[in-house]
Design goal:
DUF3575 domain-containing protein; rod-shaped; Porin; 8 strands; 8-stranded antiparallel beta barrel; signal; 187 residues; 2 helices; alpha+beta
Amino acid sequence: MKKLAIAGILLLSTSICLSQENLQEEEPEKRDITQNELSLNAFNLVSFGVIEVAYERVISENSTWAVEAFIHPNKEDYVDELYYKDLSLTGKYKHFFSSTYARGFYVNGFGMISSGEYETESYWTDGDYIVETDDYADFAIGFGLGGKFVSSGGFLLDLNAGIGRNLLSNNSPTIVGQFMVNLGFRF
């Protein structure tokens, strides 16, 4: 009888200890509770001297919205064919296809207001090659695909490529492209 009582007490104390362990909740990782992100397009900065900054806000666990500003301070430092725009402001909506909190593979839709200088005509005259340009301002709508990777501390890498079409002006590029390698922080 004594052995049975000791066994019962040990069993009861073990179950109490296990139930105490289950009651304690794990603290969620920072990347799963914070809702703001700030990032810089490192690819454009290093390759072309373009400053492109993005602010992103998490709406739900599988969607975000973002605002991106593109500024090229010195137009002579880059290849004209890649970026006709001097300034742009882009709004994006991203939808994520993973079970993780606003990270993983996503698709996005965007609207972009841009301005810059676009080549309208080029010709040879008296042995000289003449290029005529016009200033433009236009609005584009497009889509993109990407992937976002966020460390447990909040550091992020966002890879994105997108394509869109300018809608309003004949003196602007017909197609706009986006290629982004953003490095930033979720806070």
